[in-house]
Request: fold
Amino acid sequence: MRILVIGSDGTLGSELLRQLKLNKLYTVYAYNKKKLDITLNEEIVKVFNKVKPQVVINCAAYTDVEKAEVEPAKAILVNGTSTKYLAEASNKIGAIFVHFSTDYVFNGEQNIPYTEKSKPNPLNIYGESKWLGEKYIKESTTRYFIIRTSWLFGRGEKKDFVDKILDLSEIQKDIPVITDQIGSPTYTVDLASATLALILTKNFGIYHIVNKGTASRYTFAQEVLRYSQKNVAQISKIDSGSYLYSAKRPKYSVLDCLLFSNVIGYELPNWRVGLSQYLKERRSGETFVRGQSSSKELW
Ligand SMILES: NC(=O)c1ccc[n+]([C@@H]2O[C@H](COP(=O)([O-])OP(=O)(O)OC[C@H]3O[C@@H](n4cnc5c(N)ncnc54)[C@H](OP(=O)(O)O)[C@@H]3O)[C@@H](O)[C@H]2O)c1
Reply:
């Protein structure tokens, strides 16, 4: 199977690539932003005609939730319009199109997990732009997987929530973290393997895929310190009102994964299992190349 991974340097893209390369059944083509800028439609067409992929996995996205509020046109261009280009180009060559979306398409007013049938109503520009991308995909092709996920952590160049908490624990004795955002932290290793299993089913549509279990940002941060065996710093409780955000976040964005588990026959493990595994790997001396965070936001 010829698989094209776009946005291959991102947190999820690099993990998908790592797993794909372990399987000899796949011929994998990796395109990072340097090799393919998805805002350039003609470039997309050129690459698709050259590679002739049977599956296109799009991991490229504009993911800076705070910055999106000040440059909405860019967020919409990357997450909306460019997603349309990719879905149309996939349709034209008969490739399956796989795309990732977010829990931030929901407004968080529910107190039970959101299903694929729940109505999106994003609170911020990032969520709007990702929802627009979803709508364009549905208009452009029938052979698609839209996978909504949340609160990713894992190996990669960008600093995620886990890195930010660990960094702060080196310089602060007390780390205030909000209690009033509830979601499901998700390990990229689990999400990537679930995605690859789902693609093989050809059971197209929208899916929610997150690790089992829920957490507040506060609990997530506490567990990061506990599993990393750092007990010099402590996490203290604040509510989101005392945190200066530009972008509003949903208070509750837990995703219901029943559809995925019915189709695939298993559930993802609890996020604590993934977190503990991830931090153990980091402690065991594996080298992680991590760059600077693109913004100062903690979540
Ligand atoms: N991270 C989360 O917590 C989370 C939660 C829910 C859903 N998701 C979704 O999951 C997917 C993967 O997220 P991630 O965390 O892996 O994101 P990420 O680490 O920010 O990776 C996104 C990649 O896309 C690249 N990119 C940006 N603009 C591009 C363009 N015009 N052309 C080509 N590449 C471009 C980025 O390059 P630069 O960094 O150089 O710009 C980066 O390598 C995204 O669709 C995201 O919306 C993520």
In short: The longest strand covers residues 96-102. Confidence is low (pLDDT under 50) at residues 287-299.
